[in-house]
């Protein structure tokens, strides 16, 4: 059975974006980006992959991405209609349609993820955001936090949902010279 992994950038104080959805506050030095490109190549958007030298890198962990409209919209604003062309792409939204046949828009994320988990294949990359992570909270099998060495003070929380304590076990920690830490947890 496939797993759903919430792979997300987060500040030291637990925010995935600033109060106005700012994500440009996260430092992304070349060494950090190179590490992500090497270890998680499929999480790099298709239009960025050639610039990182991983245009044809095989998918290592994921073959499907599920994202909310808020995660999809910045690419659309730049004219990128299929941000992860190397993956099966799903956008969860009740307010948008897809301008690209490679992107499927759905309204029920839980049913979608349960159907995807029943298939064979690599893992499912949950790209965000907080509301979608809250809706899929019970389906998240693994969390990979890209912990950035900054505090935002306030902003968009990692999960927007009901209070529900769920235990996870640390599976891996990678500390980079850049000050970034990649923490991987699996559901207990």
Automatic annotation (TrEMBL):
<protein>
    <submittedName>
        <fullName>Dihydrofolate reductase family protein</fullName>
    </submittedName>
</protein>
<dbReference type="InterPro" id="IPR024072">
    <property type="entry name" value="DHFR-like_dom_sf"/>
</dbReference>
<dbReference type="Pfam" id="PF01872">
    <property type="entry name" value="RibD_C"/>
</dbReference>
<dbReference type="InterPro" id="IPR050765">
    <property type="entry name" value="Riboflavin_Biosynth_HTPR"/>
</dbReference>
<dbReference type="InterPro" id="IPR002734">
    <property type="entry name" value="RibDG_C"/>
</dbReference>
<feature type="domain" description="Bacterial bifunctional deaminase-reductase C-terminal">
    <location>
        <begin position="3"/>
        <end position="181"/>
    </location>
</feature>
């Amino acid at each position: 059975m496939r797993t759903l992994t919430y792979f997300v950038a987060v500040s030291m104080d637990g925010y995935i974006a600033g109060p106005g959805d700012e994500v440009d506050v996260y430092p992304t030095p070349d060494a950090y980006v190179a590490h992500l490109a090497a270890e998680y190549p499929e999480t790099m958007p298709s239009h960025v992959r050639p610039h990182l030298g991983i245009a044809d890198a095989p998918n290592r962990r994921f073959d499907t991405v599920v994202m909310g409209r808020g995660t999809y919209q910045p690419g659309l604003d730049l004219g990128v209609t299929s941000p992860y062309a190397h993956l099966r792409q799903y956008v969860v939204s009740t307010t948008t349609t897809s301008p690209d046949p490679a992107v499927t828009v759905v309204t029920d994320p839980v049913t979608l993820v349960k159907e995807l988990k029943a298939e064979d294949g690599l893992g499912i990359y949950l790209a965000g955001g907080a509301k979608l992570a809250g809706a899929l909270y019970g389906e998240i099998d693994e969390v990979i936090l890209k912990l950035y060495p900054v505090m935002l003070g306030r902003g968009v929380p990692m999960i927007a949902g009901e209070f529900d304590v769920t235990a996870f076990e640390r599976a891996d920690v990678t500390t980079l010279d850049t000050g970034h830490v990649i923490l991987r947890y699996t559901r207990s």
